[in-house]
Amino acid sequence: MKAHTKETQATLTPDKAIQFLKEGNERFQNNLKANRNLLEQVNDTSDGQFPFATILSCIDSRVSAELVFDQGLGDIFSVRIAGNFVNEDILGSMEFASKLAGTKLIVVLGHTSCGAIKGACDHAEMGNLTKLIQKITPAVNAVIEPKDESLRTSANLEFVDEVSKKNVLLTIDRIHDESPILTEMEKSGEIKIVGAMYDINTGAVDFY
Predict the structure, then answer these.
(1) Cβ within 8 Å of residue 185, ≥6 positions away
(2) For residue 186, how many other CB atoms are within 10 A of its CB?
(3) Pick from 31, 139, 155, 161: most CB atoms within 10 A?
(4) In whole angstroms, what is the distance from residue 141 CA to residue 162 CA?
(5) Are the beta carbons of 122 and 207 closer than 8 angstroms?
(6) Whether the Cβ atoms of residue 51 and residue 77 lie closer than 8 Å to each other
(7) What does the alpha-carbon distance between residue 114 and residue 51 come to, in Å, rounded to a whole number?
(8) Residues 3 and 73: beta-carbon distance below 8 Å
(9) Is the pTM of this model over 0.85?
(10) From CA 161, how far away is CA 6, in angstroms rounded?
(11) Could you tell me which residues come within 8 angstroms of residue 125 by beta carbon, excluding any fewer than 6 positions away?
(12) Can you tell me the distance from the alpha carbon of 146 to that of 123, in angstroms, rounded to the nearest whole number?
């Protein structure tokens, strides 16, 4: 499999970009890999890059976007931060990726049993982690059930995963609210902004 070129990137649609990621995740789940020469891709991309997607994911060591979607060099922009939320720097990176570098898709990728989400559920406090967790707290508050406070902790993995899903949706809302550039591109059909969840138990990605 060759690295993407300006020509191949130009032929892609947002839906096709999603299909590429779904096919890659299927290969990952079946322990298969596309036949690609990474050193050849190093050479092919030395003069430029033409990725087709931008993926915002957690720093979790089990959730490498390049691996779980079986992508090579030059295929995706990968943005990683604990809790996969956005700030102005990440939004600027996404705007660069979409408006200037030509990616067709933005994926906000959450995952099950997320440590950052667990910390937010437990209202953990530790150094700079405290401020990071505060950015995820709105997702905790947005999940109504269960109401029993004793069940709204990291010990309740079902609750944790519901908060992870809500965090993905709220992150997409923030992208729409805080980036007129990306919102306009989505309205015009140039890109799509979608959410997805990675299951650390199965390796499967569920697109919303």
Answers:
(1) 98, 99, 191
(2) 19
(3) 139
(4) 11
(5) no
(6) yes
(7) 27
(8) yes
(9) yes
(10) 38
(11) 133
(12) 16
